[in-house]
Design a protein that fits this description.
Structural class: alpha/beta
Order of helices and strands: HHEHEEEHEHEE
InterPro entries: DNA_methylase_N6_adenine_CS, Efm5/EEF1AKMT1, Mlase_EEF1AKMT1/ZCCHC4
Subcellular location: Cytoplasm
Largest sheet: 7 strands, mixed
Strand order of the largest sheet: 3-2-1-4-5-7-6
GO biological process, one term: methylation
Number of helices: 5
Pfam families: N6-adenineMlase (PF10237)
Distance between the termini: 79 Å
Oligomer: single chain
CATH class of one domain: Alpha Beta
Catalytic activity: L-lysyl-[protein] + 3 S-adenosyl-L-methionine = N(6),N(6),N(6)-trimethyl-L-lysyl-[protein] + 3 S-adenosyl-L-homocysteine + 3 H(+)
Shape: globular
Length: 213
C-alpha cells in the first residue's frame, strides 16, 4: 500500500527557501516602514493603487514639479497638491524649506501625513474643510485621476477655489482644449514621466510664466 502522504505535493527545498526569503523581505519592508529610518515621504512608500487610477511620477519628474512649485509659491508660500501625492512627497523631502504644503487626496492611506492630509473626492469639488480658505494657496498642482472632461471640470472648481492665481496642471495631452477652457492654462514644453509607462501622453499646463518651458 502506498503511503497516504505521497499524493501531497512537496515543495522542493529550493522553492521553500525562496518562499521564506520572500516573506522575510516582506516583513523587513513592513518593519522598515514603521522604524524611524524609513523615509515615509519617499515616492513608492505608499504603493500605487490602479483601481484608484494612481500612477506615480518618476523621481525626476516629481523633483522637477516640486522645484517649480517652490519657486512659483515664493518665500513662505503655500502649495496645494490635488491628487498629486508624488509631488507632495517630494516637497516634504525638502524639509525645512520655507513653504507649507497640503495634500488633497481620495486615498485615505495618505492620512499618515497627519494634518496636511485633506480627504478629497472630485465628485464633490467644494466639499472642503472650513479652514481651507478660498484663494489661500500661492500655487495649486493638480493631476485629475481620470482623463475625462467631467473629472477635469470638477477638479477645476477645486483648483479655482484654492488658488490665488497660479495653476500647474498635469493631465493627458488629449485634454489640452478642455484645460484651456476650464482653467485658462497652456501646455508647457516639459514632459512629465511616470515610474511606469502610461499609454496616454502626459503633459503639464500652466497659467503663469513657469520654468517648465
Amino acid at each position: 500500500k502506498m503511503d497516504d502522504d505521497d499524493d501531497v505535493p512537496q515543495l522542493s527545498s529550493h522553492t521553500l527557501a525562496a518562499l521564506q526569503e520572500f516573506y522575510l523581505e516582506q516583513q523587513q519592508r513592513e518593519g522598515m516602514k514603521t522604524s524611524q529610518g524609513f523615509n515615509q515621504y519617499s515616492i513608492g512608500s505608499i504603493e500605487e493603487d490602479w483601481q484608484l487610477s494612481q500612477f506615480w511620477y518618476s523621481d525626476e519628474t516629481a523633483s522637477c514639479l516640486a522645484k517649480e512649485a517652490v519657486l512659483a509659491a515664493g518665500k513662505g508660500g503655500r502649495i496645494a497638491c490635488v491628487s498629486a501625492p508624488s509631488v507632495y512627497q517630494k516637497l516634504k523631502e525638502q524639509d525645512g524649506e520655507d513653504f507649507s504644503v497640503c495634500i488633497l487626496e481620495y486615498d485615505r492611506r495618505f492620512s499618515v501625513y497627519g494634518e496636511e492630509f485633506i480627504f478629497y473626492d472630485y465628485n464633490h469639488p467644494l466639499d472642503l474643510p472650513e479652514n481651507l480658505l478660498p484663494h489661500s494657496f500661492d500655487i495649486v498642482i493638480a493631476d485629475p485621476p481620470y482623463l475625462s472632461e467631467e473629472c477635469l471640470q470638477k477638479t477645476a472648481e477645486t483648483i479655482k477655489y484654492l488658488t490665488k492665481e497660479k495653476i500647474l496642471l498635469c493631465t493627458g495631452a488629449v485634454m489640452e482644449e478642455q484645460a484651456a477652457k476650464h482653467l485658462g492654462v497652456k501646455m508647457c514644453k516639459f514632459i512629465p514621466k511616470h515610474s511606469r509607462n502610461l499609454a496616454n501622453e502626459f503633459r503639464c499646463y500652466v497659467n503663469y510664466a513657469s520654468g517648465l518651458d
